[in-house]
Amino acid sequence: MDGERRRAALDLTAVVGCGAVALWSPVVALLAALAVGSVARRARGDGWTTGRPVEPWHLVTGIAVGGVALGLGLVAADPMVTAGTGRSVEWSQVTAVRGQLGSAIVLGLLVTAQAVAFELVLRRWLLDATRAATKPAVAIAVTAVAEGWLVGGSLGARAGAIVTGIACGWLYVASGGRLATSIAARVTFELGVVAVVWLRLV
């Protein structure tokens, strides 16, 4: 257990170090974490895949959770934030996709790749490491906070990332450590955001 705790602490320190780069460029921070995670897992004889079979319900569950999260964000979070702060939720920083199908497709591909990278780093690498050293609930919370640090941006963006991290962490653990579920949820939500911005619904 002591060895597992040391490894988890080292992995968490590495993610925190990469997160410091997010103050300058969140994309570079994520790529750095992905590279460091690849080296760390390879050094321990692990790759990014586990060989666990993925059942259709894993994907369906993830898609459903992502869709519900998007719906709740549109009908509940946006009005609450607007009422409390006088400002609406900033659903996408790339407003150029409004009404532009080509731009929306490119952005959709980018956010999909980013979603996969986040899940590899935060769930397959960091959550697996911390879960081996502590209780699953603690591991989910730790990796969620790490996600808030890694994304960079405003406090609101970081808070949203922590909530996302808790949801994706729970899905990952509940599905027996299968990335398909958390990735499906995250991609569904992110592509949904791109779609509603493209359609000018927000």
Q: What is the average of the pLDDT values?
A: 86
The tally of beta strands, per DSSP, is 0
Contiguous runs where pLDDT drops below 50 for at least 5 residues: none
Percent helix, as a range, is over 70%
**Biggest sheet statistics:** none
Distance between the termini: 49 Å
User: What gyration radius follows from the Cα positions, in whole Å?
Assistant: 17 Å
The shape is: globular
Q: Structural class of the secondary elements? A: mainly alpha
Number of domains: 1
Give the helices and strands as they follow along the chain. Answer: HHHHHHH
The number of helical runs is 7
Residue share in β-strands: under 5%
Description:
This protein has one domain. Helix 5 packs antiparallel against helix 6. It has about 200 residues and is mainly α. It has 7 helices and no strands.
Question: How do the helices and strands line up, and which of them pair or pack?
Answer:
Elements: H1 2-21, H2 26-43, H3 56-85, H4 101-131, H5 136-151, H6 155-174, H7 179-198
